[in-house]
Amino acid sequence: MSSGNTGALMATARYVLKTLPGIDRPAIISAVPGVAGPTYMLDLGANVGCTPEHLLQFALMGSVVAEDMLEIERPRVGLLNIGLEDIKGNETVREAGELLAKSGLNYVGFVEGDGIFHADVDVVVSDGFVGNVALKTMEGVAKLIGSFLKEEFGRNVLRGLQGLVAKSALEALRGRLDPRRYNGASLVGLNGIVLKSHGSADQFAFENAVQAAIVEARKGVPVQIGKLIETRPH
Questions:
Q1: What is the pTM of this model?
Q2: DSSP β-ladder status, 39-42 and 76-80
Q3: Band of the pLDDT at 122, cuts 50, 70, 90?
Q4: Of 55, 82, 77, whose CA–CA distance to 66 is shortest?
């Protein structure tokens, strides 16, 4: 567990723990809020340039994490793309889609950006560049909504009273979008469990990251990933 530099943590973890057999690159995975519960996304910044095989490995690892953390069988896996049609996206994404379709995973196809939050996917796969941009955009939009709401309810006395009436609903909304609830990004693909906490995490946020690490340890996520990689179709 670390709240320090992500790059340094990744380099140290790879050197000390090593990657699992059959995994070329570890990936960063974390939960993001969705309409029916969390969606797990990876990679969120560890690998900028990826091959179709890397994306397939990310999908396999993400499926294990989602199955354990969400306690569901055969999580639905989607590949982030600019459209839903098979002809959309660059060559890497299209080839990765073909690999995923033959992987034995519960692959549901391409997912557009807005589909990350829908109820028809549990894992969203992308390279680290796209995934990190998407994550930071989500965080920015959440802050923007909070700022706009505060501004609107502070315009005049009437708006302030309306805000008091809606206080319980607004607090519930803030709770559902609170990034502290989703603190703790896992570095998967290593021969051990490593979690990255946000540098500005408070006690509540850090506690959530610790709880995620405990679940991964109890479920034996690295062992499960290793077994899945060994038995996957080639």
A1: 0.87
A2: unpaired
A3: very high
A4: 77
